[in-house]
Amino acid sequence: MLKVGLTGGVASGKSTVAEVLRLKGCEIVDADRLGHEAIEPTGPAYRAVIAEFGEEIAGEDGRIVRPRLAALVFGHPERLVRLNAIVHPAIVELAEQRCKAFLRRQPRGILVVDAALLFEASMTGHLKRVVVVDCDPEQQVARFVARGLGTAEEARRRIAAQWPRADKLARADFVVDSSGTIEETRARAAELYEELGKLL
Predict the structure, then answer these.
(1) Domain final residue, candidates 107, 138, 156
(2) What DSSP character marks residue 169?
(3) Domain range holding 17?
């Protein structure tokens, strides 16, 4: 099995690349979904998050109300650091479980961990290759606004909160240039799949 990390900044085209790889037959592990799963009542991070941020972040059903949690950490970097220190290891744990299950099913397959915070969560040590989807930051801002995700200022703030572009590119084994049309990005993603297949 080939374990690959896929990352990129907000509105960089990462989801487009992930979808092409999925359609080609890769197993996609969505770290964002695992983050949600990690703080479910049965998740590995649930008790620690409740202990850190208080019972008031949970609803009547016991589940953590994510907007309440977000309100506590938004604008408070030290709280976000504490939250990430709890949740990121849980995401890695869940991702490893998915990897082992996939290895049993398909020992010669390609598994892709799709994670915006791949480097921030220290997930690269578990991977054979890292793919960075990249475009100009101003393109990211324009796409963010065009998709109705927020204002240009919000986009720039989110970009600034992630690892610097140059650092990501320096650590990439493969870079998918997503600065063109969505069709061009899909074509480059298909080329990436062929290159990954050579590593099996």
Answers:
(1) 107
(2) H
(3) 1-26+109-200
